[in-house]
Design goal:
CATH architecture of the largest domain: 3-Layer(bba) Sandwich
CATH class of the largest domain: Alpha Beta
Radius of gyration: 24 Å
Strand content: 15-25%
Distance between the termini: 64 Å
Number of helices: 13
Strand order of the largest sheet: 3-2-1-7-18
Number of domains: 3
CATH superfamily of the largest domain: FAD/NAD(P)-binding domain
Largest sheet: 5 strands, parallel
Length: about 475
């Protein structure tokens, strides 16, 4: 344990970044306080994001697996959905996890204050509770972990219970007959998949030419083929030109790239166009913190802001807006405050889209390499050649490894397929450890598993794969 010299630390925000920062700070002997609006730590991720959405995606998978079991000669009666029990099960997961974090706060002797925080000055925090009562905290350092909120479409915003965002959609108040998902990114596809599995006819509209804008086309294409069978309709290169409340729901006007318009009415509309940092409302103007044009707080590699007393981590400190990135940043910030010489300099941050199939990547992507005019060597292993994928009847997958063409060092990995989110950590470890494709190929993977696809992809970097044959090049 470090000598804290009595330093006081206030963490604003109790999400995955905030509570990870606070726990590390307390473990390092710092006098630590968390300020958050909820009764326990957890943040958006635990209360209204990652965890409840994954609980519902598991429900969707169970329903899909039951339907597809007919392939194996097993036929189930049409499942009966008990929405109340489903919601209660999801809420129980959230309650258990947030309650556990509350106990960990107490065990570490962290002060937890429920309320809204703002800065009086760089070392004074005002906390206002739900009754309007104020208290003031003096601190040596503040770790700003205020997170983000769903982005909106101001020009198309209407007040209606039929218009949902990622938070309200997770409540699953009912199962609408029809739903439009505005935004073909990971949030829209994940939540759209849940409603589609429950029986809703889901239409997805995306302004760009493909789903998951920014994702590598070869990975996205496999997901898009599956989504085309799950969703009622997918509209790309299409924008929403107008929305209005009407009899039966929300009437939406679509406009295609050539300017043609048409209208359709949906029982519910889910707006999922990304998230915005919660940098407003904190009275940052009373500090020396710099906020950029996108609303992100500017930080250095140690997560210091331009105010020497304030650090910022997680969604508020810039892309990517991912819980695991926030957690690592939080631990770094706490260590820096405790006097350790550390920095947040990851070689790879994994990203996972928890659709079916899952899509995951880390390190350099092919799309990024093309934008940067970087020469790379890419090998792909189709899951049609995987014995384990065949036993699962899920050969709709692909594993690829991106290497430096001279050294064969692994600099990127992408996977689409069942369980891709679990597999991608191999890529993160390989990149962080400076492994080569040969290192992965020489590491014996268990058979039959989906992890073998990583080993076989590595072998293909050198042109030789056991289950994929490539004729030798002729001179």
């Amino acid at each position: 344990m470090s000598n804290s010299n009595g330093r006081k630390v206030v963490v604003i925000g109790g999400g995955p970044g905030g509570y990870a920062a606070a726990f590390m700070a307390a473990d390092l002997g710092l006098d630590t306080t968390i300020v958050d609006l909820e009764a326990n730590p957890g943040g958006v991720c635990l209360y209204r994001g990652c965890i409840p959405s994954k609980a519902l995606l598991h429900v969707a998978k169970v329903l899909t697996d039951a339907e597809e079991a007919e392939h194996w000669g097993i036929k189930f009666q049409k499942p009966k959905i008990d929405l109340d029990k489903m919601r209660a099960s999801k809420d129980a997961v959230v309650s258990k996890m947030t309650g556990g974090l509350g106990q960990l706060c107490k065990a570490r002797k962290i002060t937890f204050i429920q309320g809204r925080a703002s800065f009086e000055d760089s070392t004074t925090i005002k906390v206002t509770d739900e009754r309007g009562k104020e208290q003031f905290l003096k601190t040596d350092y503040t770790i700003l972990a205020a997170g983000s909120r769903p982005a909106t479409l101001p020009d198309l915003l209407i007040e209606s219970d039929a218009v949902l965002n990622s938070t309200s959609a997770l409540q699953i108040e009912d199962i609408p007959k029809t739903m439009l998902v505005i935004g073909g990114g990971y949030i829209g596809l994940e939540l759209g998949s849940v409603y589609a599995a429950l029986g809703t006819k889901v239409t997805v509209v995306e302004m760009t030419p493909t789903l998951l804008p920014g994702g590598d086309p070869d990975l996205v294409e496999i997901l898009a083929k599956r989504m085309a069978t799950v969703m009622h309709s997918i509209l790309v290169n299409t924008k929403v030109a107008g929305v209005k409340e009407s009899v039966g729901g929300i009437t939406v006007t679509f406009e295609t790239a050539d300017g043609k318009q048409r209208s359709e009415t949906f029982e519910k509309v889910l707006v999922s166009i990304g998230r915005k940092p919660n940098s407003s409302g904190l009275a940052l103007n009373n500090t020396k913190v710099t906020v950029n044009s996108r609303g992100f707080v500017e930080v250095d590699v140690q997560r210091r802001t331009t105010d020497p007393h304030i650090f910022a981590i997680g969604d508020i400190a810039g892309d990517p807006m991912l819980a695991h990135k926030a957690s690592h940043e939080g631990r770094v910030a706490a260590e820096v405050i405790a006097g350790h010489n550390v920095a947040f300099e990851p070689a790879a941050i994994p990203a996972v889209v928890f659709t079916d199939p899952e899509v995951a990547w880390c390190g350099l992507t092919e799309s990024q390499a093309k934008r940067e005019n970087r020469t790379v060597h890419v090998a792909r292993f189709p899951w049609g050649a995987s014995g384990r994928a065949s036993t699962l009847n899920r050969t709709d997958g692909l594993t690829k490894i991106i290497t430096d063409p001279d050294t064969h060092q692994v600099i990127g990995m992408g996977i689409v397929g069942q369980g891709a989110g679990e597999l991608i950590s191999q890529g993160v470890l390989a990149i962080e450890m400076g492994a080569t494709a040969e290192d992965i190929g020489l590491s014996i993977h268990p058979h039959p598993t989906l992890s073998e696809t990583i080993m076989e992809t590595a072998d293909l970097i050198f042109g030789s794969g056991t289950h994929v044959y490539r004729p030798p090049k002729k001179d």
